[in-house]
Amino acid sequence: MAWIYLLIAAAFEVVFALATNATEGFTRLGPSLLTVAAAAGGIFFLSLALRTLDVGVGYTIWTGIGSIGTVVLGTLIFGEAMTPGKALAFVLIIGGLAGLKLSDRRTAAA
Question: What stretches pass through the bilayer (predicted)?
C-alpha cells in the first residue's frame, strides 16, 4: 500500500508544480488555492507512505516522479522544450528511482 500512497503523493506533486506555474506569483486565486491543496495532499500521502518506506527512498522517489511528471506535462501543456540532454537526464533519473526501489530494505523483506 505504501507504493500506492507514494504514487498518489507524486501525482499531487505534479499538480502542485503545474498549478504553481499558473498562479502568476500567487496573484490568481484559483491556481493559488489549487497549489496549496495539492501541496497539502502530496505531503499527506507522502507521510502515509513513509510509515512503511525509508524516508530517503520515499522522499527521493516522490520528488523524482514529481519532477519527471512535471517536465513531461510542462512540455505537453506549456510547450517547454525537450532537448536530447533533458531526455537523457530523465532516463538517468528513472534508472536511479528503479534502483532505489529495488534496493529498499523494507521492500526486499516484504
Answer: 33-50, 57-79, 85-103
Grid coordinates given for 61: 522517489
In sequence order, what are the residues at sequence separation of 6 or more whose Cβ sits closer than 8 angstroms to the Cβ of residue 93? Answer: 64, 67, 68
Give the tens place of pLDDT for each residue, 25-84: 999 999 999 999 999 999 999 999 999 998 988 998 899 899 889 989 999 998 989 899
Long-range contacts of 19-23 (CB under 8 A, 24+ apart): 21/74, 21/78
**Residue written as grid cell 505531503:** 43
Mapped onto helix, strand or coil, the DSSP state of residue 27 is: coil
Are the beta carbons of 67 and 93 closer than 8 angstroms? Answer: yes
